[in-house]
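2024-03-11 09:14:02 INFO worker-7 job=invfold-0412 stage=load source=structure_tokens
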């Protein structure tokens, strides 16, 4: 019987959820969905604008609504936002409706990727108002235990291309 649940990719900013998710979908019969992109489409504005105009609480509510609509989907690779795991109900939902994969990287690599990413300011607004370095260390330290408890599998993306990471995921979970 074919696997028809969803695969949820979780992890901090710039760990490769979107790029790896696209690669994984391309090498399988699964479709790809990026929750952050869905939020931007639904609201017709950037995430930074949503947060600036409506606040993080409203953003998290929209994010949760879109996540919960994925219960009607089957065989999708779903890239989530880095903070989706901050609500327990989101974690319970993902675990019930699919496999949860944590993409991770050391903080210095995440910071380097964020500094190189020209869209960081628009797609990744500050969570704390602190420098990228201070914020990343602080937020990641709080979230690592949550990611660990939320995931079924974890993959370090620090030394691998998104394609290689996707190949490793495919090999590990034997369902694609």
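2024-03-11 09:14:09 INFO worker-7 stage=emit residues=176
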């Amino acid at each position: 019987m074919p696997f028809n649940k969803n695969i949820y990719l979780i992890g901090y900013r710039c760990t490769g959820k979107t790029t790896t998710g696209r690669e994984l979908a391309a090498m399988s019969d699964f479709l790809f969905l990026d929750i952050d992109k869905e939020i931007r489409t639904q609201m017709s504005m950037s995430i930074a604008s949503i947060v600036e105009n409506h606040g993080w609480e409203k953003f998290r509510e929209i994010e949760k609504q879109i996540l919960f609509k994925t219960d009607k989907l089957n065989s999708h690779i779903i890239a989530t936002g880095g903070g989706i795991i901050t609500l327990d109900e989101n974690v319970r939902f993902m675990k019930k409706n699919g496999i949860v994969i944590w993409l991770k990287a050391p903080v210095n690599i995440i910071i380097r990727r964020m500094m190189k990413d020209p869209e960081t300011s628009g797609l990744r607004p500050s969570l704390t108002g602190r420098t990228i370095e201070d914020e990343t260390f602080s937020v990641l330290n709080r979230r690592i235990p949550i990611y660990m408890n939320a995931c079924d599998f974890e993959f370090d993306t620090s030394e691998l291309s998104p394609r290689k990471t996707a190949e490793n995921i495919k090999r590990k979970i034997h369902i694609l």
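2024-03-11 09:14:09 INFO worker-7 stage=report msg="The beta strands are 6-10, 31-34, 76-79, 98-104, 153-156."
2024-03-11 09:14:10 INFO worker-7 job finished
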